[in-house]
Every structure is written in structure tokens, then in C-alpha cells.
Write a structure and sequence with these properties.
This is Pyridoxal phosphate homeostasis protein. The structure is a single chain. Helices cover about 45% and strands about 15% of the residues. By secondary structure, it is α/β, with parallel strands linked by helices. It has an 8-stranded parallel sheet. Helix 3 (about 60-70) runs parallel beside helix 4 (about 90-95) and helix 4 (about 90-95) packs across helix 5.
Length: about 230
């Protein structure tokens, strides 16, 4: 068994344990393997171990990996999870299945315009800045409803949920409060937008808190692939 396969097993066991503590079924929580900055070979190892959902943040690098994976016959569900600049929307619209980080209408409109007719609607999540940190992307709680309503009217997009990144802090109480706030917002929005079925929150360091707070998708990179190289596109 490869190191990546072993790490995947450990993460899956951690999700199952967290779900059990929260009185939830493990299959309620999807694992999104964050493969940004990692080579195709690492993705292939995770794929061989059964992983099918992968998250990328750098458009130019990601598109090359998507194309290479397709050429290798890998059937992957690709999520774009990073901040998306308006000049990078076209390749993302053409190559990804999901964009989990839509934070403003301009980006949604460009994705809708540039999504090829030959592909199914692009699944999107709205990123919410739950920590209030200026360096983090995401819309505000107050603006989410209007953005959700606008996205739901775009024919080549399908509104699927909310995504957030917790504050980088050791204060687990603060993380729990912000996750619970996002969960409450998600439940409220679902009443008006029933296509919303995804609440993406929780990463390697706060997975258990996220699962206890109702997350349906956790984004795990370091615990699967090891430390990543920090870079900007």
C-alpha cells in the first residue's frame, strides 16, 4: 500500500469517528482531496485507492492536470476551490465539474456565459467569509441570499451550497461558532433554494469540529498528500 493510500484510509477513519461522535452516518460527509501543487502521479495514487473527488486552486496548473487525467482515463469529479479571478473563468468553466468558491455575481455570470453547451450545468457553491478576515475571499452573510437568487437564475449553473474557511486559530470555540453560524445560514437558504445540498467546511486541522457542525464535505490536502508548496499563480 502506498503512503497516500494509507493516509486516505486514516482520513476516512477520522471522518467515520467524527461522524459517529456527532450521531451521523459517515457517508453523509464527502471527502474532497485537495491536490493543488501536487503532481498527477499523486492524484493517480489516490485514485487507485478509490478517491474520485479532487480540489484544485490554481487554474493554469489545474487545467493541465485535468487534461492529463482525462487522457489517462481517470474519471474524476474536479472541484475548483480557490479564489477565481475574472480572467481565469473561461478555462475553469470548460474543465471543471464544480466551482466551490464563487463569491460575487461577476464571476458567476462569466462562468455561466463561458460554460460550453456540450457540458452539463456547472455546480457552484457560494463562498462565505465566516471569519471576517480581510485576507480571505468570500461574500458576507448579509449578501448571500441575493447572490444565491441571482445564481439560481443562470441556466448553465446549478447552485449547490455554501463553502467557508475557518479562522486560523487554536480557539476551537470560535471555530465551532463560525461553523454553526454557516450551518444555520445553509439551512435557512435551503428553504428557498432546494437544490442546495452541500455545506463545504472543514480542513485537516478542523475536520472534527466541521463534521459535528453539519458539514457535508471536508477538504483535506495535507493529511493525504503531505505539506504542500505555497505559491501564487
Amino acid at each position: 500500500m502506498s503512503d497516500i493510500a494509507h493516509h486516505l484510509q486514516q482520513v476516512q477513519a477520522q471522518i467515520a469517528t467524527a461522524a459517529g461522535k456527532a450521531g451521523r452516518a459517515p457517508d453523509e460527509i464527502q471527502l474532497l482531496a485537495v491536490s493543488k501543487t501536487k503532481p498527477l502521479s499523486a492524484i493517480q495514487e489516490a485514485y487507485a485507492a478509490g478517491q474520485r473527488r479532487f480540489g484544485e486552486s490554481y487554474a493554469q496548473e489545474a487545467v493541465l492536470k485535468v487534461q492529463a487525467a482525462q487522457a489517462a482515463g481517470l474519471e474524476i469529479e474536479w472541484h475548483f476551490i480557490g479564489p477565481l479571478q475574472s480572467n481565469k473563468t473561461r478555462p475553469v468553466a470548460a474543465h471543471f465539474d464544480w466551482v466551490d468558491s464563487v463569491d460575487r455575481l461577476k464571476i458567476a455570470e462569466r462562468l455561466n456565459e463561458q460554460r460550453p453547451d456540450s457540458l452539463p450545468p456547472l455546480n457552484v457553491c457560494i463562498q462565505v467569509n465566516i471569519s471576517g478576515e480581510s485576507q480571505k475571499s468570500g461574500t458576507t452573510d448579509a449578501a448571500v441570499f441575493d447572490l444565491a437568487r441571482a445564481i439560481s437564475a443562470l441556466p448553465r449553473l446549478r447552485l449547490r451550497g455554501l463553502m467557508a474557511i475557518a479562522e486560523n486559530t487554536d480557539d476551537e470555540g470560535a471555530i465551532q461558532r463560525s461553523f454553526s453560524q454557516l450551518h444555520d445560514l445553509f439551512v435557512h437558504l435551503h428553504e428557498s433554494f432546494p437544490s442546495m445540498d452541500t455545506l463545504s467546511m472543514g480542513m485537516t486541522q478542523d475536520l472534527e469540529i466541521a463534521v459535528a457542525s453539519g458539514s457535508t464535505q471536508v477538504r483535506i490536502g495535507t493529511a493525504i498528500f503531505g505539506a504542500r508548496e505555497y505559491r501564487q499563480e
